[in-house]
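Check my protein:
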Amino acid sequence: MNTDLHRKILIKIIFLFLFFISACSLKEAEESNIITIAIESNPTNLDPRFSMDAVSSKITRLIFNGLLKRDENMRLMPDIAEKWDMTDDVTYIFHLKKGIKFHDGHKLTSKDVKYTYEFILEPANKSPKKGGYDRIKEIKTSDDYTVIFILKEPFAPFLDNMTLGIVPEHIARERGSDFGSHPIGSGPFIFKEWMQDERVILSANNSYFEGRPNINGVIYKIIPDETIRVLELEKGDIDLLMNPITPDILPRFEKNPELKIIKNTGTNYSYIGFNLNDPILKNLKVRQAIAHAIDRDGICKYILKGLAKKTDGILTNYNWAYKPDLKRYDYNPELSKKLLDEAGYPMSKETGIRFKLTFKTSQNELRKRIAEVFQEQLRKVGIEMEIRTYEWGTFFSDIKSGNFQIFSLTWVGVSDPDIFHYMFHSSSFPPDGANRVRYSNPQIDSLLEHGRVTLQQEKRKEIYSKIQKTISEELPYINLWHSVNVAVMKKNIDGFTLYPDEDMASLKNVLIQK
């Protein structure tokens, strides 16, 4: 072979080799700036008009923007809306930011906002979110950047629901029901891939109106088994793990020098509910006695390992309507026994018990374990408690139908105090609401109705303070605890913030230190 030709071929091979190495290095560098997060299940639908489960919500909030959003303290802030005004008690005018684009390059305008909400309101579309917007009478667009919502009547919680992700009309119409599996929004991350039972991949939106994210993308790995999620994090195959984390696993993470843990009180609220039609439990002193018999501090410390914070009310101090200094029911077995005696339930000398109750819960292992602690603590004051566990569907059906004496559940994502109407108004007995304990108080009904139509926040706060005070005294629920959100991540990840409602919006600000 000709020497010059040989030299040229050799140079070409070396050049291609170096190019390949360079390309690999670039690819590796790119991939090193992607955060991999483990999630416990598939999202159900990535269309914000339909998604209801927690996993779907975490992902859609990165792909879409709403008119408003919540910050890390749960305060409502402008998102695609620059500002909003009210011309009267039923008219809200949103002025949109200009220059926002969907991921396909189309401008986001008032027409997209109008389309998104009108789609939800159309009964034929069967959006599960329709109930949150049923007070909207009409939506108008005076220009490309002005949306006007006219309500049927004054409704104070209206703004609380305006965080819904806005979809592009031109694509959502075209794709129909397929939009939820190939979503296009305007958010900081762009949908790339969804492989059922494997992963969801998002990439950074270079044209995001608030600035490109610091990372190149997010991979959500779907790993149903917690043990495998833990091992993958420890091996370094995933970068971040967030709720749910079993309390017993936490000490293991705390001893690992390669990991760091952040915690923050969340809005999820756990409680014990009573059947107030039950002949024993309708007695307030019995309910008070049960509340004083339960050692919430001990459960939070030893069973939940600090992943719960004892509470005396439903709202957290993030909430503008939060009322401190509600009636407290601290652990006091002797007071519990005294109250039971006063209620007319003395201890039987033969059996050593006062009466028997049935406690219903799901088959979740942690919930069963907590129920066993309740059982032992009530036994000490003379109450025999039988635990019955059911698969979720059967358990929840029993609770809604009133087929229980005592149960425990968790309210997820408590925000506007109007939720008290859903919980405690006498018109909210299932199936029309979630007043599962059948609480009825005409004074509370009147206050709840007044709270809905009072638009000044300070006046609303006075109303809900009265409601919280009465509820804490009449004790339809035993307040247990608010969950403590926890995230475990590699120690080189900076800037991740735990939102009370588990929003992962801070991913756009995260930095991976080299």
The radius of gyration is 27 Å.
